[in-house]
Amino acid sequence: MRRWPALGVVLAVLWLFVRGIELTPDRIAGEFLIGLAIGVPVAFVFRRFYAEEFVLARSLRIVPYVGLYLAVFVKELLVANVDVVYRVLSPSMPIEPDVVAIPLRVESDVAITTIANSITLTPGTLTMDYDDDTNTLYVHGITGRNREGVVAPIRTWEDYALVIFGEDASPDDAPPAPRGDLGGD
């Protein structure tokens, strides 16, 4: 099955969310048709930027992992927001920023970018750099001296990303050993 028509339908569904329409059947159908009229041509024009074939079985297999990735991300987002608010409102709360080097098992650009963006979108952490030679992300955290607190959610995201993006490594593989943190005591 060609991928671009399926992507056109996905764009039509996204159109429904972007438009924020009234939830009535006629309104949904009308906006979906508008989304198709926009999404299918856009998908056709950009078809050379993604794989020709669309494997439905693989896509259905990764849906639970996408849901788990998003659930963990939302949980970490909420916890980090509360933590940062607490630190701001409690001046005596120690903030010990540090940079943590996190070697990755994922290797594709899209998987690395997804994880790096998830880190940066979470309050209190920031992806500072990526070393292509060692496949390592450098992450700044306001609780960076608590290395495990910074690394644990990233490893969970990486486990799901390994499956979602069809990486060669497995979630059962041990993560690479860190080369050491940049920050000092």
Topology (elements, then pairings):
Blueprint: H1 3-19, H2 25-45, H3 56-89, E1 98-103, H4 109-121, E2 125-131, E3 136-141, H5 147-164
Antiparallel strand pairs: 1-3, 2-3
Helix pairs in contact: 1-2, 3-5, 4-5
Spans of at least 5 consecutive residues whose pLDDT stays below 50 are none
- How far apart lie the N and C ends? 56 Å
Strand-residue fraction?
5-15%
Strand order of the largest sheet: 1-3-2
Instruction: Give the biggest sheet.
Output: 3 strands, antiparallel
Specify the structural class.
mainly alpha
Helix content: 55-70%
Give the total of beta strands. 3
Please provide the ordered H/E string of secondary-structure elements. Answer: HHHEHEEH
Number of helices: 5
Look at the structure and give the mean pLDDT.
86
Gyration radius (Cα, Å) is 20 Å
What does this structure look like?
The chain is mostly helical. The protein contains five helices and three strands, in the order H-H-H-E-H-E-E-H. The protein has helices at residues 3-19, 25-45, 56-89, 109-121, 147-164, and strands at residues 98-103, 125-131, 136-141. A three-stranded antiparallel β-sheet has the order 1-3-2. A hairpin with a 4-residue loop joins strand 2 (125-131) and strand 3 (136-141). Helix 1 packs across helix 2 and helix 4 (109-121) packs antiparallel against helix 5 (147-164). The mean pLDDT is 86.
